[in-house]
Design brief:
Strand content: 15-25%
Bound molecules: flavin-adenine dinucleotide
Largest sheet: 8 strands, mixed
Number of strands: 18
Length: 427
């Protein structure tokens, strides 16, 4: 087994439920900080996690954290999209503006790639660290008292100092932590998503430019719909996604097989390039319609005795237009592991409360950016944008992207704890 830098053992035992990006990142970070981790995942095999999904993005605030996991960022660069810009078009096809991200280099790396491939790199790293990852483990209940927390998994009770519930948007743990079932609302939008080989379009005169000259990244912005296109690995792989109005007739965020004919109806009258991208999609490509739910911010991420904590999508589902869902889930694990390290085994509930205090406002500010971008795009005023094309750029704010969650936590922990102990925050 490879040797990785690790803080001295803290004696803190951690159970993590769910090995999505949030859970696996929390597991690695807890290991880095010297805690002992058991990661429980209901999927029977890792392929069940890696085979779903398409493009996923980690902006500098998320991707910089991978640099601390030896070998991970280097492996990601090999499969990630090699663009430092986004070309934006009017929905009828007119080029409007190129937004460059090159100046953000000093903020940290950006990683955009296939969800499964990027996940697999992290998973292999977790394995190389020797983490205790148990597949085929469906957690059905949670419990806690003053001294410990635990879960019921496959009918058996397992306990530790803390349980981290990272079960994603359909989390059962959320109900147990909150004491009530918070109802998701329809966001009124859904996303069609598709990924296939660049070979399928490399001889198509209208759209071959999207894969023939290396990687590309472009977006077509129209009334209540935006259509994003990427090519990766020097055009060998190709991906499109579009967010559209949805009837909202759905109780929970989920994914349904999509139909090319339905997609074509949405982009009727759009630029020929856009229509051709959809039309040229191979019949066997995996096309899904991903319904997006909205949740009001939860009143809390933590259980009454502060030994169970929700992280990732279980705590705060994101809209894709925020481009932050995955990055915020990585930040969660980093902050929680650091708080546990600073608090020590005797003060686990204090660590959990400090984690919530540090994360709550930031994560909800980040969440709000998703709605802002969607509105800016879907209700674009083209007369204004032609005068000031930057008005349609993605907001790239330093407070969000030029941010080191670990450093911030180390710097602020003492002050946050003082506030908690002084009774100024909810205890
Ligand atoms: C199938 C799928 C495809 C996605 N595709 C994309 C994409 O293409 N692009 C994008 O930007 N985002 C995508 N996302 C969302 C993105 O992965 C998340 O927003 C982000 O990474 C935060 O993830 P998370 O770990 O909090 O939740 P998730 O990624 O949902 O992970 C939760 C994990 O918990 C496990 N789990 C759930 N309940 C239990 C239980 N009771 N016991 C044990 N384990 C349990 C699940 O099997 C899962 O592995 C996708 C999510 C899913 C689930």
């Amino acid at each position: 087994m490879a040797h990785f830098p690790r803080r001295p053992p803290s004696g803190i035992k951690v159970i993590i439920v769910g090995a999505g990006f949030a859970g696996i990142a929390a597991a690695i970070e807890c290991d880095r900080k010297g805690h002992t981790v058991t990661l429980l995942e209901k999927a029977e095999s890792i392929e069940e996690i890696t085979r779903f999904g398409d493009i996923i993005s980690f902006d500098p605030n998320g991707a910089r954290l991978f640099e601390r996991w030896p070998g991970v960022i280097e492996a990601m660069y090999k499969v990630a999209r090699k663009t430092s810009w986004l070309d934006l078009y009017h929905w009828k096809g007119e080029f409007v503006t190129r937004q460059s991200f090159a100046h953000e280099k000093s903020w940290g790396p950006r990683v955009n790639g296939h969800r499964g491939e990027l996940y697999d790199i992290i998973y292999q790293h977790a394995r190389d660290r020797g983490l205790d990852i148990r597949l085929g483990q469906r957690v059905t209940d949670y419990f806690e008292d003053d001294d410990k927390a635990g879960v019921v998994v496959n009918g058996e009770k397992v306990a530790a100092d803390i349980v981290i519930a990272a079960e994603g948007v359909r989390s059962r743990g959320r109900k147990i932590v909150l004491g009530f079932d918070d109802k998701p609302k329809s966001s009124g939008y859904a996303v069609y998503r598709c990924w296939f080989s660049g070979d399928a379009i490399k001889d198509n005169a209208l759209i071959r430019h999207l894969v023939a000259n290396g990687d590309t990244h472009s977006g077509y912005i129209g009334p209540d719909l935006h259509f994003l296109v990427s090519s990766l690995k020097d055009g060998k792989e190709f991906n499109w996604v579009f967010t559209h109005v949805d009837d909202g007739n759905i109780e929970e965020s989920w994914q349904f097989p999509g139909k090319i004919e339905d997609c074509l109806r949405y982009v009727e009258g759009w630029a020929p390039v856009v229509q051709e991208i959809v039309r040229a999609t191979p019949k066997d490509a995996r096309l899904i319609d991903h319904k997006l739910v909205f949740r009001n911010p939860l009143p809390t991420f933590i259980s009454p005795k502060a030994r169970i904590v929700l992280i990732g999508d279980a705590a705060h589902p994101f809209l894709p237009t925020s481009i932050q869902g995955a990055s915020q889930s990585i930040e969660d694990g980093v902050v929680l592991a650091s708080c546990l390290e600073l608090a020590g085994k005797k003060n686990v509930p204090l660590a959990v409360r400090a984690h919530e205090k540090i994360r709550y406002e930031r994560v909800h500010k980040a969440q709000a950016t998703g709605v802002k971008t969607r509105e800016r795009w879907h209700k674009a005023n083209w007369d204004e944008i032609r005068k000031t094309p930057e008005a349609i750029h993605l907001a790239r704010e330093a407070w969000l992207l030029n941010f080191d969650a670990e450093k911030d936590c180390y710097e602020r922990y003492g002050e946050v704890v003082k506030g908690l102990e002084g009774g100024r925050a909810r205890l």
